[in-house]
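FOLDING PROBLEM:
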Amino acid sequence: MGRPRSPRGRARETARRLAEEYPGSERELCALDHDGAFQLVVATILSAQTTDERVNEVTPALFRAYPGPGELAGAEPGELEAYIRPTGFFRSKARSLKGMATVLVDRFGGVVPSTVEDLTTLPGVGRKTANVIRSVGLGLPGLPVDTHVGRLSRRLGLTAETDPVKAEHELSSLLPPAEWGSFSLRLILHGRRVCVARRPRCVDCVLNDYCPSAELPARGARARPGTRTKQATL
């Protein structure tokens, strides 16, 4: 096929090619271990300023101790902090977790809400996290924009916006809502594996024949297959 020239065309071709490179559902592409939306909210709050691997080390015991919003809302702060200490910033995260669980119980009957507006009323949950919860945890449209998504979208000429909310709105206009979450997660994977911040490996990129920012040693260079990263860090 010819090279896509419009932002919409590049977005659709990017979604198609990255789906081949990084197959799987939103749940499978997400690196945070969880069972249901509530656990995903907890895990995403814990993931700030640490690795998903570290979060996955502490959440099994945490979820056994506090299996639902009611138990977490009533947690003794010191005990909760002990469970999550390895993730760093454990005191502020403990406050966010207890606050989030309390709001879930008091305002939403212990059920994770589905709208971005309601999700962002939960302590520790911003717009990016709300979109992660919608797309991964609830199976609803959501397009999280983190540093990887923003960087790759600008390099691909899909948006010039540096503001995450404006970039989200612009990107969401280019693809069907059902593809928003997986598109974001695959951009994250590609940004970690190939299109890195300082020295992007353009020769190895499956998008290099139409990416406006591609830097190739010679015209017509082909992408080389590489080892696929299986999960996206959020």
